[in-house]
Amino acid sequence: MQSVTLSLYRFDRVPARLWVLGQMGAARFALPKVPGLRFWKLCGSGTGEGFTPRPNWSTWAILGVWEDAATSLEGLGQSPFIRWSARADESATLFLEPFSARGHWSGARPFAPEGTADGPIAAMTRATVKPARALRFWGRVPDISARIGTDPNVMFKIGIGEVPLLHQVTFSIWPDQASMDAFARRGAHADAIRAVREQGWFNEELYARFRIKGTMGTWQGRDPLARNPQKEAA
Description:
Blueprint: E1 3-10, H1 14-30, E2 37-46, E3 55-66, H2 69-75, H3 81-87, E4 90-103, E5 121-129, H4 134-150, E6 156-163, E7 167-174, H5 177-184, H6 187-199, E8 202-217, H7 229-233
Antiparallel strand pairs: 1-3, 1-4, 2-3, 2-6, 4-8, 5-7, 5-8, 6-7
């Protein structure tokens, strides 16, 4: 079974932030040498609710697609993952298995979905925004981000991206498929999806859903899965 990891790193100090900026170039040479790593992306992040055009210089991410779970655990103990963790003030990795995926990322289909999901799920949307549509796209995003941030069901959220303004990824965790679908069908998010289809905002799109197999480390002082709205309401 394919294993997907999303590793997040927070660098609070200026020297560490300058170091990781350099690593955004250097790690491109190291990652292809990691055994079993079939697909990878280095990403920065946004401020506020995480998905905004203003960069967050403290938070960076590495997405990895591995042959299987055992390979991912071995690979995360190698450079650059281990070096980033050692330098970071905080880091966390989410272990995922894809059960639904459609679209492309840099011309590839990186995820091999299998099975179904029961319980909390992660949703990932990745898009390459057409430069001519970027202003309209970013005009919609703040409202969507604010709604995600106030949705009582969202357990975790972050916006990351490969290229500022043009290559963007949203990642969120929900207690179940129903709560995620309910958000997607209403309000600003639904309006934006219609605009994408009608006006052709994106050059490339990918939509994926994942089972959550586990976490390692902490983010904002806790396990990224610590908040479960279903348990809070029980």
